[in-house]
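Q: Is it fine to ask for two folds in a single conversation?
A: Yes, each is treated on its own. Send the first.
Q: Here.
A: Result:
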Amino acid sequence: MTAVQFPIAANPETALNAPLGRSGLQSAASVVAGADVAFVRELSGPAFESRDLAFSAYKGRVDGPGVMVQPTDRYCELQPVMAPGPARRTVWRLCVSYWKVRSERDAGSVPQARKARRSADAASTDRETLNAIAEEPLRPMHPQKALDIGLFEIALPENPAIIIADE
């Protein structure tokens, strides 16, 4: 069986039109990109009112009536999504699966929002850094404790396998 060869790109539009290359494995995709990559599925292109309209716009990229895409090229699919706005209706969009090239900002070069806000030079932070912090997903300040230990329980220092109540 032939594996899907996913495009390597920075965004879904580039994955469709001008990828850096294609790979079925993350390690090979990292070598081609020269950076870390992450497998993502993102929506691309306009919304269509019906599946038939979307299929005719993306004919040759997705399977449909009378069209079978090669197994290595099956990285696109049509997906129903809710249309934005108050009207409840379903529209069809193209969903692209690809290896996303991670930038330095994705790797965590942006300071954590809480630390940046409380730092001594918080007032002098430039606009680009503030925008990057606002777009960054929330990150914890320290790793989360194990979930099998409750709020008022601790592990014994001499035997961490034993959990006792903390008074």
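Q: Second one now.
A: Result:
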Amino acid sequence: MAATETRGSGEKQGALWGAAAEDWASLMEPLGDKLFESVLARGAFVRGARVLDVGCGSGRFAHMAAERGCDVTGLDASESLLAIARRRMPAVPFLHGEMEALPFPDERFDIVTGLNAFQYAADPRHALAEATRVVGPGGQVIVATWGQPGACEVTAFLVALKPLMPPGVGGPGPLALSEETALRSLATSAGLTPVSLHDVDLPWEFSDFQTAAEAMLSAGPTTLAIQTSGRERVQDALERAIAPFRLASGGYRIENQFRYLVAMKGRL
């Protein structure tokens, strides 16, 4: 799913996350289904609920929410991913925009989700404050991010990727909000009341290395590494990093965990 940074960096982030949009939509986004199903089971996604999915990517979660009867809107920084979402669901509005400058009036939605999105903002508090602004009193904001590094075997690849990134690159990344205290503090600072925290096991399974490479190299951070160091070096780093997770069949199973915080606008 694509995300943005403060003051116009959505163009940059959108280009990164949309560089291999078809691979992301067909190979990576479906791996999040267990997370999406868990979020939808929280009970607020009833028929007619007005839902904004921030960083909607190619619209898989939005589609699942719409199938439950929710009134869904998607927003993303990648036009390439949005094109896929619109093709899949012509009746759902999918808008191009910045998560830190949401193009909606105050209290427009009942639920705002950011599933693998807010941690990529240069100012996550400001991005979450925007989500708080557009949700109504008593509404929910749901923030999903990676779990603890020790619960995510993909961390091995993130470590291998670091030397292949541009010099001096730092700041937000996949694990930026993984700590429970960081996630809860972020919600509180944005004017939300944390309600519950949930961990979801999310293993990645690939039939062979080529499929694993096409999927994992479609994410924004890997696109940046490819632009910096070349696809061959990044793919070689990936092959070494995931070698311990190769199965006897020749496929791969990489154990990961996501966590999400359900927060409410107002007090319990």
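Q: Anything structural to flag on that second result?
A: Two points. The chain has one domain: 10-152+170-205+257-265. The longest strand covers residues 135-146.
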